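Reading a protein record of the kind used here takes little practice once its layout is understood. Each number in the token line that follows is a code from a learned vocabulary of backbone shapes. One such record is shown here in full, so that the layout can be seen directly:
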Amino acid sequence: GTAHLFTVMSPGPNQALVLATGAKSRAAGLLVAFGAWPAGALWAALGLAGMGEVIRNAPWLELTIRVLCGLYLLYLGARMVRASFADHALGRVKPIETARWRLVLMGFLSNLGNPKAIAWYASIFTAAGAYDLAWQWQLVAIFGMPAIGFSWNSLLVFVVSSGPVNALYNRAVRWIDRVSGGILLVFGLKLLAAK
């Protein structure tokens, strides 16, 4: 549990997306954070089913996952950087006009393509011997571990959407979007360049 919390708290593409979205709209940020939860549950279930062993024995599968995830992160990063050059009326953050289901899907795909999540869930259950746990405890792991991530991301949304922090964000929105988008681009390129 504690190791998972520290893994969740370490910077990655999910946090970049959640922070950038949550600063523009608390509701939108929470929807993105919520969307990441089922992807985490999927990776946890696959991890318990032996995904790490499957990936080791099927290099083409690992390559496919890595390329698709890398391309999606590049897409998200490019969108954020491009949006940072758009006109913001009076320097204020442009409101998010994305449908709710798209925000949930963004969070889902971001976590689905999160190399940190894939590596973590592919290895942690083997290292912890979770395969020997009773099915009830395996269900707790499948749903509980991603819930820790959702809780952390939700906390980030509440912090970044609070009055004082949001006022700072509004003044630096262009640069924050560029940095956040750049982080996603770096993660995407790193995935595509990995051997």
User: Anything to note?
Assistant: Residues 89-95 have pLDDT under 50 and may be disordered.
